[in-house]
Amino acid sequence: MAKKRGVWFGVFTKPWPKKSLRELGKFISGLGFSGIEFPVRPGYPVPPEKVESLPKAAKVLAEFGVQIDSVAGPIDERTIAACGKAGVPMIRTCCGGGPGGYMAGEKRTQREFDALIPILDRHGVAIGVQNHFGGGIGNAMGLLHLIEKYDPKHICAVWDAGHSGLVGQDVENEIDIVWSHLRMVNLKSAYWYRKNGPEALVSEWTNRWTSGRHGQADWPKVAEVLKRRKWSGPVCLTAEYSEETEVDRLITEDIAFAKSLFAKKK
User: What's the start-to-end Cα distance of the chain, in Å?
Assistant: First the structure.
């Protein structure tokens, strides 16, 4: 499939593990997506032990006008080689924390990346590191601190608006910080809410993943900044919703909303 230019929309196909490749291609294309993030995980059409079948899977999906923009799976030589043969440019991952604290975890991750650079270079594949609230890399500055020493053709940034929204980061600043290494933008959204009432001694909070219109991630601002900067690359809607039975309805609404935000003004 020819390399795309401008903005195109993909979706993480994690919610649909039981669909065959042909069913998946037809379904995703029908929703209005031309790209996907493809799970190489147990229970999916291409599990880790059969990762060599990824090029065949890519060909089936291409029949429906769908390309694999990234893989969510193991970062090892087998997977990297399979991605290279399939024309998949990136394996997405999240990093941070672990034994010894955050900074020790960062150094450990960089040593792992250093060892993988020759393999990534040989197969033309990158590792895309995503920000994630909680114990991982919660913001763009942490992401840049981890990856800035690497060529983005090897180690790049996947900036996630949903996780950035949960930690209260400014969209303009976040995108500016990782711009040099940015290869994919994730669109999802969530909000914090209090689990207990005012009679409790200490408040307890949790989050709920919702549609793009109703969470703390500022999708209109994301689109405005990316358009102004003339972003070219995939925008992946991750189809993550706390109301799992409503995924098909919500992703249909969200792709329409996202496309409206990125549409050129007449």
Answer: 30
Domain count of the fold of the chain: 1
Q: What is the pTM of this model?
A: 0.95
Residue 230 has pLDDT above 90, yes or no: yes
- Integer Cα distance of 153 and 108 in angstroms: 21
- Domain membership of residue 1 (yes or no) is no
CB-based contact 252:20 (threshold 8 Å) = no
How many CB atoms neighbour CB 27 within 10 A? 17
pLDDT in tens, 74-91: 999 999 999 999 999 999
Q: Kindly state whether residue 166 falls inside one of the protein's structural domains.
A: yes
Identity of the amino acid at 84: G
Looking at residue 71, what is its pLDDT? 98
Q: Which residues contact 171 (CB under 8 A, 6 or more apart)?
A: 161, 164, 218, 221, 222, 225
**pLDDT greater than 80 at residue 4:** no
Within-domain flag for 2? no
Residue 92 in contact with residue 158, Cβ under 8 Å? yes
Q: Which of 9, 15, 10 is nearest to 245 (CA)?
A: 15
Q: The domain containing residue 214 runs over which residues?
A: 7-262
Longest Cα–Cα distance of the chain, Å, equals 60
d(CA 152, CA 147): 8
CATH code for the domain in which residue 215 is found: 3.20.20.150
The answer, yes or no, to whether residue 265 has pLDDT greater than 80, is no
